[in-house]
Fold this protein.
Amino acid sequence: MKKLNVEFQGQNFSSLLSLPSVNHAVQKMSWASFGGPDKAQINLSADPVGDDNQLWAVLGMLRSPVIIKDENYESRWWGYIRDVLIKAPAISIGVSLDGMFNRCSVYYVDDSIGTGSGSSVSTAWAEDVDSTQLYGKRELIETLSAANQVSAEKRRDLLISTYKFPVCVPRTERSSRLTVELVCSGWLDTFDWEYYSCLAGREANDASGGGSQDIGKEAASTAAAQSFQLASTVAWSASKVGARVKKVESPTDNFRISLHSDSADTPGTELAYATKAAADLTDSFSDVTLTLNVAVTLNPSTKYWVKFARSGSNNATDHYQMDVDEDLSYPRGTLKIYGGSSWAARDPDADARFSVTGVQDTTKQMETMVTNSAQFISELDLIEASGVSTNQFREGDQTCLTVLNELKKMGYSDGIGMTVKVNYDRSLRVQKESTIDEYLWTIDGSLVGYYNATTPTAVDPTGTWCRLKDIIPASIDAGMLGDPTRFFIDWAEYDPNTGLYKLTARGQPTPYDLPGIEPG
Amino acid sequence: MTTELYLKYGSTYFYFERNDLILLSYVPTIAPESEATVEETIECLVSGADGAALEQEIGDFETAMVQAGIYAQTKRGNIVYLYFKPDGDSITWRSQVSKGEPVFDQDTMDWGWLRKKVVVKFKLTRNNYFENSAETELSLSNGNGSGTGGIKVFNCNDGTGTSPNKKNNWVDIDATGISGQKTPLKLVLYNNFNDTTRLADVWIGNNAYANPTTVANIIEGEDTLYPGSADKVASASDSGGYYMPRVWASDSEQYAYWWVLDKTFLDKCQSRYFRVVARFHPSGPTTDPRVRLELSFPATTSLTLLSKTQELKITEGVEMQDLGVLQLPPWLVSVTGPIYPLDLIMMARRVGGFTLALDCLFLVPLDSYRYLYPKGYGADYGVTLVDDGILGEVYTSGWDTDGYTGHYIGFGEPIHLFPGRAQRLSFAIKGNTESEITRTLNVRAYYRKRKRAL
């Protein structure tokens, strides 16, 4: 069978590692339509009478980049060393990046005596610099049900000191000669190392502080307005506004929410508006989110106002109320009331319960993620924008991988799915799924180009369509089935020893998936 | 003539046939080609004046085996070779030994030791081939001459100029008279390009199966179907005297260059693999599009994609860039006869469009392939780069301050000689800042004939 070649690089990506007198044998390698290179297993051994010290040195190569090349030195698989298992005659030593965390934050409910807010807060992130510089950031969010800041920070620091480096673990496997097994993962795996936070796309006060404010009842409560500034440091386009509102008795006009620029610390020029018919409100508080008539670009370090009013005249019986927060939870603005002739601070002071949200193309969101997070990815390689827009705000409690997968699943605006793969140069390629057949899978497990063109050794066939060749007899009546000969290759594994592939169609588990509960 | 069989390391010899040793039996072992080593036994009758003398004889063998193991593990000290010259053979063959031990049969401690004559089986492990103990320089030829002593190659193959400055980027090796196994070469590349820009990367390919002496190994940028020849720009610093510019203003992927590969060319290529190295007009691309090469059918209409290289990003300012591997043609390996023309298309895309200026494509054959890459400095004018596939080392020499360096890395196996076949070594040469078509190397090649069966 054709020999595959393996290259290792230093963790800094800039130096090639030389391991003379070490033989390598790729046991298997796999790819997935989501991510490209998935897993690879490489066995190392010294030359027949070679230098074992070089094999032990592999313990220091965790997170080293790995490139597997075919017999023509074309790159076929790329990723990093995740696990090292050294099998010696007396004992085996295993070490893995799984279970290593070098950056941590603790979320806890603040129960500080006398000062505790009782609400969920988090410590600042802390890290071990030596570990993050060598391996990259691998983040952990720990949750405590009740703690104060001191105890939460101590917990955070303990976690870092315990898990900052991979730990060598003795294992039971033996080998007559010293051998090394490397388990490598593709770069998409590292998206699960970082939590993704994006402040753009949402500015809100969700706290319910127990107060309520009349809107349009009388002159003194003609309207209310909440000033705000973006927590985000980048501009974004607002498309929706929201509030927590109810009607009192039977108004017949509309509840109106509008966005304004600032004018001497009062609502200035109206930038956009949205309305909700009274008939669509209840007499209990409910969250309403309305689409603005036009999108508005909001810039950081700029004061804006969201104004709450009624479209009709004040009425002491039939009017509206909105939920306000008298605990003053919102840090970047104030609530004012329009008393018929001027704006003034509310007494007692409060913040409105409000939201301003935006949407952004999902591929643009991916670009932001790659730029601000995804530490090992060089850039986004976008073939075509998705045309699908969703709210881009992310709290920071999901990893980049989870968010990326969610965005990918939305596909393109014309209904075609999305392929996301890491390229050889560690850029992230995003494009529409292929719709053409590219491969034929034969009865012996080999993969052939669709026009019988020779398939290169260890090619990644995922993300394309494949047909079964000469497997299902032509005599079988498959009229009431989906075309049984054609399937989308979702995952593939190549065995260099046989030259054959295992393929998994979309929707099917891979041979290595654990049984679990399917969502829905 | 008599048979000669001995170990040698440095200036130390251990003969298996001499006063105190009588060679009883030796048959060279032949193992499958996939095996790297073979184990075999040399049976001798060892005699001595007393027990100490016997121990000395056997101990000398053990000393040799210790050194064999040390070198095999650490490459320290001298290589231990088993030399064998069969009766009637004009060549003394050698094979590197990696370990061994003396083995005694049951009678050794009985009557043998008492009589000071013991039968010893010297077991050893050696490489699974014998090689000629003498290194031979191969006769090379191209448009700049033929013979040994060095042949000049250029970073261009448009055939312009006359000997000794004819622009050929290849040398022919006529190995039709050479028998034996496929064997690695020792390539000696002397940087005779008198310029301050140093030699950097070198791509070397050996074509032994794709009509090496007649197949084209350069595709000129000005020979495209699209853009048409009317767009080519005359340039003395480009292969063939021209380069082909290409400008595209849109974000969308678009063909950059489109050639038709005719049936004669494709038939000569014999479905072999070629690495495509592009040379761009000095001083290299001014934009960084992502490009890939495609082969499609039918020619000039490109309706059906047959194969493609991996997409990669062009580097601005770099004249020589590796674009990946193509099989030409990508089908019909077993069919002989004219192959229907195919399109070779370079597709490119870049947000904001791209601007390229292509000189030519080097087709580096992959029957045997080597890529020499310097970790940093490169090689000055006057420095020799040696890719010793026989010894397994890549090094340079000839610096102003005498001394070898090991800062070049060789990717791929060392270039191999295919005995019994005419073959051609092709070169693509990169300088550390410029890759002129006038950049040259002086090439010499050495080999040691190999055999498994003697």
Notes: The longest helix of chain A spans residues 149-163.
